[in-house]
Automatic annotation (TrEMBL), chain A:
<dbReference type="Pfam" id="PF06732">
    <property type="entry name" value="Pescadillo_N"/>
</dbReference>
<dbReference type="GO" id="GO:0043021">
    <property type="term" value="F:ribonucleoprotein complex binding"/>
</dbReference>
<feature type="domain" description="BRCT">
    <location>
        <begin position="349"/>
        <end position="468"/>
    </location>
</feature>
<feature type="compositionally biased region" description="Low complexity">
    <location>
        <begin position="519"/>
        <end position="533"/>
    </location>
</feature>
<dbReference type="InterPro" id="IPR001357">
    <property type="entry name" value="BRCT_dom"/>
</dbReference>
<feature type="region of interest" description="Disordered">
    <location>
        <begin position="304"/>
        <end position="324"/>
    </location>
</feature>
<dbReference type="InterPro" id="IPR010613">
    <property type="entry name" value="PES"/>
</dbReference>
<comment type="function">
    <text>Component of the NOP7 complex, which is required for maturation of the 25S and 5.8S ribosomal RNAs and formation of the 60S ribosome.</text>
</comment>
<feature type="compositionally biased region" description="Acidic residues">
    <location>
        <begin position="550"/>
        <end position="581"/>
    </location>
</feature>
TrEMBL record, chain B:
<comment type="similarity">
    <text>Belongs to the WD repeat BOP1/ERB1 family.</text>
</comment>
<dbReference type="Pfam" id="PF00400">
    <property type="entry name" value="WD40"/>
</dbReference>
<comment type="subunit">
    <text>Component of the NOP7 complex, composed of ERB1, NOP7 and YTM1. Within the NOP7 complex ERB1 appears to interact directly with NOP7 and YTM1. The NOP7 complex also associates with the 66S pre-ribosome.</text>
</comment>
<feature type="compositionally biased region" description="Acidic residues">
    <location>
        <begin position="36"/>
        <end position="51"/>
    </location>
</feature>
<feature type="repeat" description="WD">
    <location>
        <begin position="435"/>
        <end position="476"/>
    </location>
</feature>
<feature type="compositionally biased region" description="Basic residues">
    <location>
        <begin position="1"/>
        <end position="11"/>
    </location>
</feature>
<feature type="compositionally biased region" description="Acidic residues">
    <location>
        <begin position="59"/>
        <end position="82"/>
    </location>
</feature>
<dbReference type="InterPro" id="IPR028598">
    <property type="entry name" value="BOP1/Erb1"/>
</dbReference>
<dbReference type="GO" id="GO:0030687">
    <property type="term" value="C:preribosome, large subunit precursor"/>
</dbReference>
Length: 681, 787
């Protein structure tokens, strides 16, 4: 017999370590430990048996995997933290002595710079790993790019975030990898597919963010520090994979004018500028005279022509490229062979969705997301109002090359608009064509949602549905995959409702209506010969009381009784209903016989709508009941454990069913209301 | 003190006795001497004590003093000294006494002068006479003679050194002077003194006590001045001027006579070579570029901050998957209800909205409320955005990650694959006929082997035979007036129609009269009659054997009334019979009477009209007994176990433990390897005899006790149970010959129809021998045919 093993010396007890012990082992402070964990991506674990790990106590504690902590011991960052601590002491001492200059010098020269690249390599050994984890990084950085600077988040960091985000957007535009986007109440979701990885990120709307409450910016700052480094390297890799130089040229002046995407200039390796993103919009702004305007127009037209001329060349080049890079289709030669599936080459098609158009963004539209989306889907010429910032293709709303104008203003009758103050003549022409006073012929006016819906559906939608002032169709999330039994708002109701559900609903509604109408009628009767009515029903109703109340009560009682009866009958109700059916047929038969006997013509029994509904409903109910019975029967034979499992699954399913049923009901009601409204009008 | 006491003794001896005393008598003197001595001892002690007390209260001390003086004793030196001290402190009124006393002393001293002269030349005391005329010695201070310059050392009054004075709190003295004498604590706090002190404050009075002397600390004018200056941070020295006039030692004024007459050195006028050397060095360094001109440090630190980017994944090697590494879960993509302009059905009702707003933030199912905005420009900022991102950050580094297997099971796949109800058909579903006419409960039913008749017996004591299909009563006979008919069973042979019925202790064998075809009736009667006389021929053997024991049963004819009805044989056993079961060949039948202990189970031979008791003693209460359908095995059910016995080998084969508290009935599958057991504790147990002694399946579908269970004996895979809840349950129970495959049991149908009377529902159930029909006996007085 071997030696008796001591408890707590192996297994789970050794595999996990509490946070306090971990901090003690690493000999660092708790905030440093937190930073280290964030950088290294180390997270607490939930041991399978907590009691074994914590030696019998069941108090709530966080456990780390011992090997994780062991692995932190060799982290070079630990030394940096220690150095930082000693320098911080020196600085504190200098400040205590009032030697501010010394302190600042120490801070500038001695504080160790933390480099995270080795950690990124460790955490994401392959590039695809890094892409897979980019969701949170992008969401976070896009948020910080829109935040004001803060004590723990210096302005420099925010600038860096903005730059990195714009660089990433440039890559997405250049690689045409954006797939979907969605306007939610939280912000705008984007999804790009890069190297087969779906990356979903959320960008807030441009408003001042509420930062109060218990938000610890130190923690977020640590995350941002890591994410900026990560995105920097990812951007480098992405740019180089496209043959672009990283970092792209950054035009600080343009950025100061709100150039955003336009402030960057992508350069290919040895090719120079590939994309002509920014045009001479600024110059145009300065021109005021009509002649100059005309000249400018000419130039613009020329530029457009040039571009058009350029394009075919580019296209040729591209097609050649495509020819070499594209996957060849494999034709099956012989009959008896397996066919391997190949990916569809439809991405390119979608990527050039807006390529032939020139867009103009009105002043009230969100420029940044629209610009990004349009450019990502192939549009090269996006102009906008000069107020929206630098870098537009054109700031002139009357530019004839504009094909689409995105407008987010209600359409008002022109009379209600305020008079334009008499502008100088040179400006007169310009004023005329401006929305909403008049529309340019040949230009499509649409609301922003059109862009999103087109992108998500991968095709151009009818613009008239999205015309300014029109009631927009609902904006749907492109990521919801319909599951069995789940409500799908895109399908008509009839396709997804259960059998007999609509009829049941109709009956309910009818009953409600009838009750209502009968009440109304009663009330009317009361009005005309109220006294008679009261006299008639004096036995049941007291003189002072209203009639409708009484009738309501009796109705409800009746229905209650019916309900009670049904419940009481339970299983036998089936038989009864059958019997009643049989009765009905028997009676009909008898009537027919009678009619024959009398020599009358048999009148086909016309079922009223209600009867029909009831029949359908009854049938559906019966069927459902049978199914339920069958299921119950099967369940009786299950072992208890499996029965519990089944119960759990069914609980979830029931919840889902209930939700979708509620949604269907709501929709039915809305549709009905709409119908009624239509009928009235 | 010792020295003083010794001295005192000496003094005692030396002192001459007074004349008066001597006159009194020698004895007396001795006594008095000793007395005196002891008295003195005590006196001294007393004195000490009084001294101590004197410190505390001056007045009492004074009294003591007066006593002392009156008591004519020689006071000791120490005493004297203390008194001396006290006297010094004493106010005027004690003065007269002192002078008186001193007068006495001096008188005493004078008286003794002559006596003492010779004894000690250098004597250090003076002798005076005390008030009584006795000599009194007053000692001088001892003058220690030192030959050192210690004499002019400061007079340290207290020699205790640097220790807290509080140590002496309990004593009358506060230390010792240089001579080793006690320094007595000055009396203080005397009310009058204090008053006097308070009236005119002496100069330099501080109110403090000098800890070294214990006397009130007095400070002189100068000392106070010093203190004052110290507190003001001034220089203590008198007349110190902190700002003296500046004296210009080296003025700019050119004196006529220089301090030094030496001429100015040349080096003052010649450029320094050393300096030139150093400058050249620097110049050279600058020329060579070793020294750069100062440049202010670059302002834009962004360049420094930003790390140079490079291809981090130039040589990427995928890491093998590790089971402990759990990547952070991605956030789910938004659904329809998150849209800024969702379909109207996703918008919340007012009720839902109110519920959402009222709910606590943590209880909300969704952290947002779906909202509709008719245009993009109307969409406000999301106020929880930063908070949500922060929470995500917390989740990423603070939330424990667990890999949970998601329940991605199709619930359909969990359900066992059952044969469809169509495949399971036929089974009884509806009530086809009701046999009415019984009074009270029907206890037992049986269908005859040809499937034509149903026999029933109940509380009214009648045995009735009904036509199965129509429910018409064909025949009846009242077997007993007081006992209920507990069991009726048809004999399983098809060529005859014999019914066994039990009422009380009696078992009747019946050939129903006038409903059978004549030849069947005849053959049945023949079967019954064959046994007559066998018992009569036997007695010879039984008597010449062991002594005539009471036979377990008496076989007889029931009497003409019943015989006329067709009840042909009556066998009476010792206790009431509850269960009858026929052997498959019809020659034997077993009866069970649960109350008869040793005769609980009896096996009757029809052809011999013989009754045997197979068990001498039965463990437990017998409930039921059955023959194996093909083998010579006999099953006996007791209260909570079923035993099977091999009748041929006469041994116990198996004990089944259904785990039930009270078995009500059981039935053996026609194959013989399976058994169903019904129990009063609502369970139906399926035993596979080959599998184990424990039940293979335990079914609990009844609300009340199960009274009867029955297998279909005609080859259909059906079984039924009857329960007190008024329902019958029909199951499909298929047994396959293959040993590897377990029996399939499928619940089929719940048959309801019997009414529950006094908490009893269905009492018995039997299957039709061929058809999928069954007949049940109810406590409501009816039998029902289900098909």
């Amino acid at each position: 017999m071997g030696r008796i093993k001591k408890k707590g010396t192996s297994g789970a007890a050794k595999n996990y370590i509490t946070r306090t012990r971990a901090v003690k082992k690493l000999q660092i402070s708790l905030p440093d430990f937190r930073r280290l964990c964030i950088f290294k991506g180390i997270y607490p674990r939930e041991p399978r048996n907590k009691k074994k790990v914590s030696k019998g106590s069941t108090a709530a504690t966080t456990f780390y995997y011992t090997k994780d902590i062991q692995y932190l011991l060799h982290e070079p960052l630990l030394n940096k933290f220690r150095e930082h601590k000693s320098v911080a002491k020196k600085i504190a001492r200098a400040l205590g002595r009032g030697e501010v200059g010394d302190a600042s010098r120490l801070e500038k020269t001695l504080i160790p710079k933390i480099k995270l690249d080795h950690i990124i390599k460790e955490r994401y050994p392959t590039f695809v790993d890094a892409l897979r984890d980019l969701d949170d990084a992008l969401s976070m950085l896009f948020l910080f790019a829109n935040l004001p600077s803060h004590q723990h988040v210096p302005a420099k960091t925010i600038e860096l975030c903005q730059r990195l985000c714009l660089e990433f957007e440039h890559y997405v535009i250049a690689s045409h990898s954006l797939r979907k986007s969605f306007l939610s109440i939280k912000g705008i979701y984007y999804q790009a597919t890069i190297q087969g990885q779906d990356i979903l990120w959320l960008v807030p709307y441009r408003f001042v963010q509420r930062t109060g409450g218990d938000i610890d910016f130190r923690i977020m700052g640590t995350f941002v520090e890591f994410y900026t480094t990560l995105l920097g390297f990812v951007n480098y890799r992405l740019y180089t994979s496209l043959g672009l130089v990283y970092p792209p040229k950054f035009d600080a002046k343009s950025d100061a004018h709100g150039g955003e995407l336009g402030a960057f200039r992508l350069e290919g390796r040895g090719l120079g500028a590939t994309e002509e993103s920014a045009t001479n919009g600024e110059e145009q702004k300065l021109i005021t005279s009509a002649e100059a305007q005309a000249e400018v127009d000419k130039i613009a037209a020329l530029a457009a022509k040039e571009q058009q001329e350029d394009e075919p060349e580019n296209a040729v080049v591209r097609t050649e490229e495509e020819d070499t890079e594209k996957i060849d289709t494999f034709e099956v030669a012989a009959q008896d062979a397996d066919v391997l599936p190949q990916p569809q080459a439809s991405n390119a098609e979608v990527a050039s969705l807006f390529a032939p158009f020139t867009f103009y963004l009105s002043r009230e539209t969100p420029r940044a997301p629209l610009e990004f989306l349009l450019k990502a889907f192939g549009c090269k010429r996006v102009g906008w109002d000069g107020n929206l910032g630098d870098g537009a293709f054109t700031t002139d709303e009357s530019d004839p090359s504009i094909t689409h104008q995105i407008v987010d203003r209600p359409a008002l009758p022109s009379e209600s608009l305020p008079q334009v103050p008499e502008a100088p003549k040179s400006n007169g022409e310009k004023g005329k064509v401006q929305w909403p006073r008049s529309t340019m012929p040949g230009r499509t006016y649409i609301q922003p949602q059109w862009v999103w819906d087109c992108i998500n559906q991968g095709k151009l939608l009818r613009p008239d549905l999205y015309a300014p002032g029109a009631e927009l169709p609902p904006h749907l999330s492109p990521w919801v995959k319909g599951k069995k039994g789940e409500y799908d708002p895109t399908l008509p109701l009839a396709e997804q409702e259960l059998e007999g559900e609509a009829e049941a609903f109709e009956d309910d509604e009818d009953e409600e209506d009838e009750e209502g109408s009968s009440d109304v009628e009663m009330a009317a009767a009361n009005g005309t010969n109220g006294t008679n009515a009261i006299v008639d029903r004096e036995g049941s109703v007291e003189a002072g009381e209203g009639m409708d109340v009484a009738s309501d009560e009796s109705d409800s009682e009746e229905s209650d009784e019916e309900d009670a009866g049904e419940e009481f009958d339970g299983l036998d109700s089936e038989a009864e209903s059958e019997a009643s059916d049989a009765d009905a047929t028997l009676r009909r038969h008898q009537r027919e016989l009678k009619a024959e006997f009398h020599g009358e013509k048999i009148q086909p029994v016309v079922q009223t709508k209600k009867e029909k509904n009831a029949e359908i409903r009854k049938k559906a109910e019966k069927k459902r009941k049978e199914e339920a019975e069958e299921k119950e029967r099967q369940k009786m034979m299950l072992p208890r454990r499996k029965r519990k499992l089944l119960k759990r699954i069914e609980h979830g399913e029931d919840k889902r069913d209930k939700e979708s049923e509620a949604l269907r009901k709501k929709r039915r009601r809305i549709e009905k209301a709409q119908e009624a409204a239509n009928a009235l009008s | 003190m010792s020295s003083t006491s010794r001295k005192r003794k000496v003094v005692q001896r030396a002192s001459p006795e007074s004349e008066e005393e001597l006159a009194d008598g020698l004895l007396e003197g001795i006594l008095s001497h000793s007395e005196d001595d002891s008295e003195e001892e005590s006196e001294s002690e007393h004195d000490e004590e009084s001294d101590a007390s004197s410190v505390i209260e001056g007045l009492s001390d004074e009294d003591e003093e007066e006593k002392d003086i009156e008591s004519d004793e020689v006071p000791s030196d120490g005493e004297e000294d203390i008194r001396e001290q006290l006297r010094k402190l004493r106010t005027g009124d004690s003065h007269s006494k002192r002078s008186q006393a001193s007068g006495d002393q001096s008188w005493n001293g004078n008286a003794e002068d002559g006596l003492e002269d010779e004894e000690d030349s250098g004597r250090n005391y003076t002798v005076t006479t005390d008030a009584n005329g006795n000599p009194r010695y007053i000692y001088k201070e001892i003058e220690p003679v030192y030959d050192s310059d210690d004499s002019d050392a400061p007079e340290t009054t207290n020699t205790i050194g640097n220790i807290p004075l509080t140590y002496y709190d309990a004593y009358p003295h506060i230390g010792y002077d240089i001579n080793g004498k006690k320094i007595m604590r000055p009396a203080k706090g005397e009310a009058l003194d204090a008053l006097l002190d308070s009236i005119d404050i002496p100069k330099g009075w501080t109110g403090l006590t000098d800890p070294a002397t214990g006397k009130p600390l007095e400070l002189s004018e100068e000392e106070l001045d010093v203190l004052k200056k110290l507190t003001r941070n001034e220089v203590v020295e008198e007349g110190y001027n902190p700002y003296p006039e500046m004296v210009h030692y080296f003025s700019g004024k050119l004196e006529v006579m220089p301090l030094s007459a030496a001429p100015e050195p040349k080096r003052r006028f010649v450029p320094s070579k050393h300096e030139a050397k150093r400058v050249m060095k620097i110049v050279k360094a600058i020329r060579e570029g070793r020294i750069q001109p100062y440049k202010p440090p670059p302002e834009d630190e962004e360049e420094e901050l930003e790390l140079p980017h490079y291809d981090l994944w130039a040589d990427e090697t995928p890491r093998p998957e590790h089971s402990m590494h759990i990547p952070a879960p991605k956030l789910p993509p938004p659904g329809y209800d998150q849209s800024y302009h969702p379909p109207p059905e996703y918008l919340p009702d007012p009720a839902e909205k109110a519920a959402w707003e009222q709910a606590d933030e943590e209880d909300r199912e969704k952290e947002y409320l779906p909202r509709d905005h008719e245009a993009l420009r109307k969409v406000p900022g999301y106020e929880r955005f930063v908070k949500e991102k922060f929470e995500r950050c917390l989740d990423l580094y603070l939330a424990p990650r667990v890999r949970r297997n998601k329940l991605n099971i199709d619930p359909e796949s969990l359900l066992p694959k059952l044969p469809s109800p169509e495949e399971l058909k036929p089974f009884p579903t509806t009530c086809a006929a009701i046999f009415r006419g019984q009074e009270g409960r029907v206890r037992s039913v049986s269908i005859d082997p040809r499937g034509l008749f149903v026999a029933s017996g109940g509380d009214d004591g009648y045995v009735r035979v009904w036509e199965l299909l129509t429910g018409r009563q064909l025949w009846n006979a009242k077997l007993s007036d007081e006992d209920a008919v507990d069991a009726v069973r048809w004999r399983p042979n098809k060529d005859s129609a014999i019914l066994a019925a039990a009422a009380g202790e009696n078992i009747y064998l019946v050939v129903p009269f006038a409903i059978l075809s004549p030849d069947v009736e005849q053959s049945s009667r023949d079967v019954l009659d064959a046994g007559w006389g066998y018992a009569a021929s036997k007695p010879s053997t039984s008597t010449n054997g062991i002594a005539a024991k009471e036979p377990p049963a008496r076989w007889s004819r029931p009497g003409p009334r019943l015989e006329g009805k067709g009840v042909l044989v009556q066998a009476t056993v010792r206790s009431a019979v509850k269960v009858i079961h026929w052997h498959r060949r019809g020659d034997y039948f077993a009866t069970v009477s649960p109350r008869g202990q040793s005769s609980a189970v009896a096996i009757h031979t029809l052809s011999k009209h013989l009754t045997q008791l197979p068990f001498r003693r039965l463990k437990g209460l017998a409930q039921s007994a059955q023959f194996h359908p093909s083998k010579p095995i006999f099953f006996v059910a007791t209260k909570n176990s079923i035993r099977s016995y091999d009748l041929a080998k006469q041994e116990l084969v198996k004990i089944l433990q259904p785990g039930a508290k009270w078995i009500s009935s059981f039935d053996v599958h026609p194959g013989g390897d399976n058994l169903i057991v019904g129990t009063y504790d609502k369970r139906l147990l399926w035993h596979d005899l080959d599998l184990s002694t424990k039940p293979y399946k335990t079914l609990r579908y009844h609300q009340q006790a199960i009274r009867a269970v029955a297998f279909h004996q005609g080859g259909m895979p059906l079984f039924a149970d009857a329960s007190d809840d008024g329902s019958l349950q029909i199951f499909h129970g298929k047994v396959v010959g293959d040993l590897m495959e377990n029996a399939t049991i499928v619940p089929l149908k719940v048959l309801k129809g019997h009414q529950v009377k006094s908490r009893l529902g269905v009492m018995d159930v039997v299957w039709h021998p061929r058809e999928p029909w069954c007949v049940s006996a109810g406590a409501d007085g009816t039998c029902r045919l289900w098909c």
